Amino acid sequence: MLEINGLHRGFGTGANRVEVLKGIDLEMKKGELVALMGPSGCGKSTLLNIIGGLLAAEKGNIRLEERDYGLKGPSAVVDVRRHKVGWIFQDFHLLEHLSALDNVTMALEISGMPSSEAEKKAKKALVRVGLGDRMTHIPEQLSGGQQQRVAIARAIAGERPLLLADEPTGNLDISTGKDVLQIFKDLCHTEDDPISILMVTHDPELASKADRMLLLKDGKTAASDIRSAWGLEEGEEE
Ligand SMILES: Nc1ncnc2c1ncn2[C@@H]1O[C@H](COP(=O)(O)OP(=O)(O)O)[C@@H](O)[C@H]1O
Ligand SMILES: [Mg+2]
Q: What is the topology classification, in CATH, of domain 21-96+160-237?
């Protein structure tokens, strides 16, 4: 469903130039949960931003369900952001005065859906992440894990085929992080309209529970196993 070929992106000019992505090749299948690891500053968020249509690459191509882009600037990929890709962030990004239901409904309304349909889809998504009995709660009445589940509901409510999660468990304790990963697995490994998830994480144990691990290092991605992922963590702590 996703195919990336030879993607390059750097920042700055002249002596201040840094090459960040130096030829990324990556493929994902429908229903796949892929963990992306790599040292801080190696370009994980940059890669997600390009896939999500927030940033243009300088070379290479992205094909996401028949849509080709990669070199196009944000204004030329509005359709990718609206219909193809959902986002989950470390710090949830919920609106604090709105209920769980309104947070999810509003995101759908912004993308152009009529209110009644938006509310119906929002309710369905909240039930799917196990928050059917918390819909009228505002964020501060919810635990961190529940807030992240609202954010997941918001990301899946629009029925987008690819979900990008940038360190989604970074603000959660270990057991809540595992719950989030289980929700991701359920969303990917269902018969009924599976989605694909690309998840950045620093936690090798969570990463090892994904279908596949990728390591982004020196501007390129490579398949990784649990052993090298742990090695990476040790290297970071030195
Ligand atoms: N808008 C930008 N302008 C200049 N440099 C940037 C910009 N965005 C990212 N970078 C640089 O690109 C590198 C990769 O950043 P990032 O993708 O955020 O890494 P990661 O998410 O893996 O920690 C870093 O050196 C960062 O400073
Ligand atoms: Mg990052």
A: Rossmann fold (3.40.50)
Residue whose Cα lies nearest atom 2 of ligand 1: it is 11
What is the mean predicted confidence (pLDDT) over 132-144? 96
Q: How confident is the model over 110-126, as a mean pLDDT?
A: 95
Residue 11 CB less than 6 A away from ligand 1: yes
For ligand 1, is residue 219 a contact (CB within 6 Å)? no
Say how far apart CA 145 and CA 117 lie, in whole Å.
27
CA-closest candidate to residue 65, choices 40, 28, 113: 28
Whether 67 lines ligand 1, by a CB cut-off of 6 Å, is no
Q: What are the pLDDT digits (tens) for 31-69?
A: 999 999 999 999 999 999 999 999 999 999 999 999 999
Ligand 2 ion: residues within 5 Å (CB)? 44-45
Q: Is the pLDDT reported for residue 228 higher than 90?
A: no
